[in-house]
């Protein structure tokens, strides 16, 4: 386990919480997929909030020197995926989160507890 990567995932989760995202979870998926080491998943209730959460995560991790390699879904702002390499952040509208239910799909992942400020 790379503690720096976990720190990046936790920082992304904190950025989500700072923008009032709900149901924020961090999942360690490194033993389950080569795609990433951690998924950060959260919900945002409106298009402006989805956009604000995505911007906050991108900007906060940029302060750590972590570059966002790609952003998908910002045009519709229903499911925005931010790819930071070892950490992938998913910002969902509640309907999309319920439909895709990534927590169930990656149910064998270790959940990392996150505390709200």
TrEMBL record:
GO terms for cellular component: cytoplasm. The keyword Cytoplasm applies. Pfam families: RsfS. InterPro entries: Iojap/RsfS/C7orf30, NT_sf. It is found in: Cytoplasm. GO terms for molecular function: ribosomal large subunit binding. Keywords: Cytoplasm, Repressor, Translation regulation. GO terms for biological process: cytosolic ribosome assembly; negative regulation of ribosome biogenesis; negative regulation of translation. Functions as a ribosomal silencing factor. Interacts with ribosomal protein uL14 (rplN), blocking formation of intersubunit bridge B8. Prevents association of the 30S and 50S ribosomal subunits and the formation of functional ribosomes, thus repressing translation. Interacts with ribosomal protein uL14 (rplN). Belongs to the Iojap/RsfS family. This is Ribosomal silencing factor RsfS. It comes from Alicyclobacillus acidocaldarius (strain Tc-4-1).
